[in-house]
Design goal:
Elements (H helix, E strand, L loop, with lengths): L2 H33 L20 E4 L4 E3 L7 E7 L6 H16 L6 E7 L7 H9 L6 E4 L2 H10 L4 E5 L7 E5 L2 E5 L5 E6 L5 H15 L4
Parallel strand pairs: 3-4, 4-5
Antiparallel strand pairs: 1-2, 1-5, 3-8, 6-7, 8-9
Length: 216
């Protein structure tokens, strides 16, 4: 057997050994997690995604707000930025259409747009932007740290992307989900514009509202 064959054989045995160790460690961790009682109070989460409705931001009127500011209201929460060329205006227009489709139930729903580009999306910029989509829409901004905390709590990914064709030479890559939050702040569902017509989203939301007997 050549030296090269011996090296490959040794490498293979090492990789298999590491794989076995990793499997054992994963199993032990899973068992420990299953057996260990949770001492912390439950966050507002559902399913496998730990979505937490928590933030401390400033709305487009200059008012400091938290998630508790919208208690008693269903909330449609979307993260984006005002210089976005496609997904943001499309999604916000979709959210506006959902609100209009709800009819009387719209009074119980607040559509919320949180910027991931606070260095450009100041309060006055957000005010003009959300007003162009719907009078009920709320725009939220803040410091870089406040926005990062909010995005982290919602498990929203975003990242600055250098782009010479964009204003100021950069864009913001980000996820495009709409988070449905219940009046008590719990995460209920997530939608993507394009997955279903606005009428279907509104019908689903109306069913949720009527099933919980929410009132404004």
């Amino acid at each position: 057997m050549t030296t090269r064959n011996i090296s490959i054989s040794t490498l293979r045995r090492t990789l298999w050994a590491l794989t076995g160790v990793a499997a054992i460690a994963f199993g032990a961790a899973y068992f420990w997690q299953a057996q260990t009682p949770q001492e912390l109070t439950s966050p507002r989460i559902t399913g496998e995604a730990a979505i937490t409705n928590a933030y401390n931001l400033t709305d487009h009127t200059g008012r400091s707000v938290t998630a508790d500011s919208f208690d008693g209201q269903w909330q449609l929460v979307f993260f984006g930025f005002t210089h976005c060329p496609d997904i943001c205006p499309t999604t916000l227009a979709y959210m506006a259409q959902v609100i209009d489709e709800l009819g009387p139930e719209a009074a119980q729903v607040t559509p919320i747009f949180i910027t991931v580009d606070p260095s450009r999306d100041h309060r006055d910029v957000m005010a003009a932007y959300v007003d162009a989509f719907h009078p009920r829409m709320v725009g939220l901004t803040g410091t870089e740290a406040q926005v990062a905390e909010a995005a982290g709590n919602f498990r929203v990914w975003y990242e600055r992307a250098e782009d010479a064709s964009m204003p100021d030479g950069y864009s913001m890559a980000h996820a495009g989900h709409i988070y449905v939050m219940a009046p008590d702040g719990r995460f209920v569902d997530v939608w993507l514009e394009g997955d279903a017509p606005a009428e279907a989203f509104a019908a689903d939301l109306r069913t949720l509202i009527q099933s919980t007997g929410s009132s404004s």
